[in-house]
Amino acid sequence: MPTVDVIPPKGGGNSGIRRKPWLLALQAAVSIALLAGIFWRGDFRGNLAKVLLSASPFWLLCGFALAGVVQFLCLVRWRIFLRMVGMEVGWAESAGCFFAGLFCNMFLPGGAGGDFVKIGLLAARRHDPARAALSVVMDRFTGSISMIVLGLALMAWKHEWLLRSPQVAGVVQAILIYLCGLAVIILLSVALCSRGLVGRLPAGWPCRKKVIELSGAYFQCAVQWRRTLVAVGVSLGMLALFFLTYYFAARAYGVGLPAGDFLAIMPTVDIISGLPVSLGGFGVREGLFVFLLGQLGGVPAAVAVSVSLCGYMLSAVWALPGAGLWFLRGRKAP
């Protein structure tokens, strides 16, 4: 799944997969509390099962196929960066590592655990873990760029529609500020790296350590700019299709919003649900769909939650092939 996190993982193996128990417990409590608050609604409890079973098989199949294309493009993007850092990894090997990481990201607690699994699996096959980590950093960086570009474009296109609800307007404006701020930070860090000024930053400079860690990714992207542009193009297409996966889920449940309107809410949903406040975004994502679709489209809560759960599962099913490799090799990776 696409991410806006530009903070790279450190080292290799699975040392960073596990979070502190108290943090996992807190995230689980947040997810349970949010889901309980939604399920407790009187207009929701009696309708959920009925709505879930009413999905159109045609739109579900279309969404499932589209989600597969999204994951394939994710793999293609990562392979571009593997080649950029000088790693010759075959399709079968890179696909196995990719889907093992995808499984960990979607089904196991622990933030960037999937990144560590990919690095660890490559290291177990005698690939350079430092180069593998750099490829993951570049992959995440490109994902951030695509979210900024596509997110701002969609929200600017449907700005008036998004702001017609006073309750939604504040959230949308906060996301716009976040995306613009992220763009400024990335541009500033790129400028510092290009001029060789990173090492001269004061010790207390905000994000100094992260900028230094990203300097290698910036250098590779600049030197191999043609491949970088291809990767950005693949990333933009992948993110747009990922958003369309949820639109197909909405169509499966009879939501009649135009595609442009629906896609315009997806950057807000994806960014907020990606915050590390719950397990896998559960509860947060469903609450956002209830809030945004209800305020802007008059969509009933049961339908909105069904759209959220279905959209997530359309992608999650594609992560299941990675379970075998994770259990066989991922837990043994150095």
What does this structure look like?
By secondary structure, this protein is mainly alpha-helical. The chain has one domain (68-332). The chain has helices spanning 21-39, 42-45, 48-52, 57-84, 91-107, 113-124, 129-157, 159-162, 166-194, 208-223, 225-252, 259-273, 284-297, 301-316, 321-328. Helix 7 packs across helix 10 (208-223). Mean pLDDT is 85; it is low at 3-18 and 330-334.
Question: What features would you highlight for this structure?
Answer:
334 residues, mainly alpha, disordered N terminus
Secondary structure elements and pairings:
Elements: H1 21-39, H2 42-45, H3 48-52, H4 57-84, H5 91-107, H6 113-124, H7 129-157, H8 159-162, H9 166-194, H10 208-223, H11 225-252, H12 259-273, H13 284-297, H14 301-316, H15 321-328
* Tally of individual helices: 15
User: Main β-sheet: number of strands, strand sense, barrel status?
Assistant: none
Order of helices and strands: HHHHHHHHHHHHHHH
Q: How large is the radius of gyration?
A: 20 Å
Mean pLDDT: 85
Give the oligomeric state: single chain
Give the number of DSSP strands.
0
Please bin the fraction of helical residues. over 70%
Amino-to-carboxy terminus distance: 25 Å
The fraction of residues assigned to DSSP E strands is under 5%
Q: How would you sum up the global shape?
A: globular
Briefly note the structural class of the backbone.
Answer: mainly alpha
How many domain units?
Answer: 1
